[in-house]
Structures are given as C-alpha cells and as structure tokens.
Amino acid sequence: MSSTSAESTEQTVRIERVEWGDDRAAALRAAMDDEIGPRYAELQAALTADQQELRASAFVLDPATLAGVYLAIDSDGTPLGHAALRRLETENGVEWELKRLVTIAAARGRGVGTLLIDAVERDAVANGASRLVLQTGIKQPEAIALYKKLGYEPIAEYGPYVGKVPEGLYFARALG
C-alpha cells in the first residue's frame, strides 16, 4: 500500500491504495450508487428493457482491468472518497480511464476529489498513459464542474459506452 497526504482546512487527508474488494471501497461505491441512482430514475424508466440492458452493460467493470484503487482517508480513519484507474481497450487502442470517483457529502469542498484524481493521474503516467479519459452523466453537475476546473475537456463517447449511455458525458485530459 502506498499513501500520500495533503493538508485540508482542518485535518490531514491521506490517499491509500487498496484492493477493489476492500470493504471501505465497496461501501463508498454503494453510497455513490445510492446518491446518484435516483437522479437518473426518470431516464432509466423511459428506456425499453433492451435499452436498459444495453446501458447496464456499459458499466460492467472487470476488476482485473484495474491498475489502482484509491481511498481518501481522514485523520480519524474515516473513508472520505474513492477513485480507480482502469486500463481499457477501445477502438483507439489502450486508454486509461478514471473510474468511480466519489467523495462523501460531508467531505465535499475539502479537495478530496482533487487529491484522488491526482493519485490516479500519477499512476496513469507511471503506466505510460499520455491522457486520462472519463465518463460521467448529465445529472452530476458537481463532478462536471470539478473535471472542467482540473482541465478536462469534452470528447466523443468511447469504448464500452458507445451508443449505450444516452445521458453520458465524456472528458479527457492530457497527462505528462
């Protein structure tokens, strides 16, 4: 496990590399799903069963494709956020993708998301990536604002999302 730290407004937050199956990581992903899922309920309900299945297939993640999973941990041991780096085979060759970025509501505004993205970007560069791509949704303005603030620019849909995620937005940032 590796870890880095940064001073927040009140406490130190450390970034810890963990396994995908880590209970804290799984709990943060579940919390993200619970928060974000209802935002898309109306859109999901409007899709046919076939469209719903196709959309769901875009989000299947094989943990074997992950190059790193990161948790942001508060000084008291509380997990504050999660992010992962995925190696993805696409129509353009190998892409490195930021996956499952989440910051718990109580920690937003403390720079946790930025710390996690920094960790993912460093790992992507160490793996030879020249850019990092990501997928988010139209009903996640907090995430969209963060990505734009950090220099991510809109791109066309890619890889597993092509033609499957009508609410998807796609971004990339050059690394190095």
TrEMBL record:
Instruction: Give all residue intervals belonging to the N-acetyltransferase domain.
Output: 26-176
Record CDD domains: NAT_SF (cd04301)
Return the SUPFAM superfamilies for the record.
Acyl-CoA N-acyltransferases (Nat) (SSF55729)
Q: Which UniProt keywords apply?
A: Acyltransferase, Transferase
Identification of the protein by name: N-acetyltransferase domain-containing protein
Q: Please give the organism.
A: Gryllotalpicola daejeonensis
